[in-house]
Amino acid sequence: MSRIGPRNLLDVSRETGIPFTTVYHRIARIEAESNKVAMLIPRSSPLGMVRLVVLVAAKPGLEDIVLHALKIPNYWRAVERCEGAFTHHSIHTVPIRFLKTFKEYLSTMLAMNLIKSYRIIQTGDSLPIFPQFSSYESSSGKWTFSWDEWLQELKSTTPPSSAIRDPNQSTSTFDKTDLEIIACLEVNGRTTFTEIAEETGLSPQTVKYHYDMKLKPSGVVDEFHFFVAPYPVEMSTHHEFMLEFADSVAMNRFYSLAEKLFFVDQVSKVLRKNTLLVRTRMVESQVSNLFTFFSEMTNLGLLNSYSSVRLDMNSRTQQTISYENFDESEGWKWDVYENLLQLNKL
């Protein structure tokens, strides 16, 4: 499902050789227990948007107000508290034509003394990495952490097998119906066309047309995040690392190896730089080894530098694409006056 998509279980059956009824019933059982298996991660550039990772340091005592302030422009996708040099970590997809306006909004937060500092990192779309379970021994219930072996592979002189690049900035023609379909698939990547039709008030034929003829060809609906964790949530820690590589070869070698590094959850490329933002999940007992691993990469000349924030995933809030900010005649909207009015009310 990770390779070919979560929507067609018949294709999954053909690909794996597992009987269709077995595939269907097992996925149904997982969905009954956890509500969903996968969610869509829509590509930003075809929608005329850019993905931003924002780090802010709130003034002491104003943390809750800053949390609300980050959400006011309503182009946020996820916000959580974090530990380190910053207090909040957030992800936004902002229309490219409003990028300067968004930066000015954060400057206003700084001028109002809500925050002490902030950083905006412009990235490509987040690419999910499906966890590598070959490192798990089911009979003992233990994981194998092959830190030295992974370092040796990163030192390899063979060319990397895959590459991560800046996204093309070409945009596609889309409308509010497309955005509503995207929002439904963000809630649950396996939502059927019939269910989307009921949610949006469209016909199943209209949903299918928009999906097959517009969203799929544009690549907007290619990436899905699967809710599969390699170890229990209560044992896990989550960090976001910024890895600044010596060159593009070292960066792409790490990206090629990411599937083996089962602590890697998602990867995004910082635009116009040999730098990756890497979302990690790790067993608490191995966190020190994780930092040693990146330190050794630096000693070997594979990294120029690295830094991180620890994410409080229990505080995370998420929302789907903000289709209510889209007007059929005007496109994406930004009401500067209304946003500043709400900010002042805080």
- In whole angstroms, the N-to-C terminal distance is 44 Å
> What is the percentage of strand-forming residues?
25-35%
CATH topology name of the domain at 127-165 and 231-316: Alpha-Beta Plaits
The helicity comes to 25-40%
Helix tally equals 11
SS content category: alpha+beta
- Mean pLDDT across every amino acid position: 92
| N-to-C order of helices and strands | HHEEHEEHEEEEHHHHEEHEEHEEEH
The Cα radius of gyration reads 21 Å
CATH architecture of the domain at 127-165 and 231-316: 2-Layer Sandwich
Provide the spatial order of strands within the biggest beta sheet: 5-2-4-3-13-10-12-11-6
Please give the structural blueprint:
Layout: H1 9-16, H2 20-34, E1 38-40, E2 49-58, H3 63-71, E3 76-83, E4 88-95, H4 99-111, E5 115-123, E6 127-128, E7 136-137, E8 142-143, H5 147-154, H6 176-187, H7 193-200, H8 204-218, E9 224-226, E10 236-245, H9 248-257, E11 264-269, E12 275-283, H10 287-299, E13 303-318, E14 326-327, E15 331-332, H11 336-345
Antiparallel strand pairs: 1-9, 2-4, 2-5, 3-4, 3-13, 6-11, 7-8, 10-12, 10-13, 11-12, 14-15
Helix pairs in contact: 5-10, 6-8, 7-8
Question: What this model shows, in words?
Answer:
By secondary structure, the protein is of the alpha+beta class. Helices cover 35% and strands 27% of the residues. The chain has helices at residues 9-16, 20-34, 63-71, 99-111, 147-154, 176-187, 193-200, 204-218, 248-257, 287-299, 336-345, and strands at 38-40, 49-58, 76-83, 88-95, 115-123, 127-128, 136-137, 142-143, 224-226, 236-245, 264-269, 275-283, 303-318, 326-327, 331-332. Strand 11 and strand 12 (275-283) form a beta hairpin. The mean pLDDT is 92.
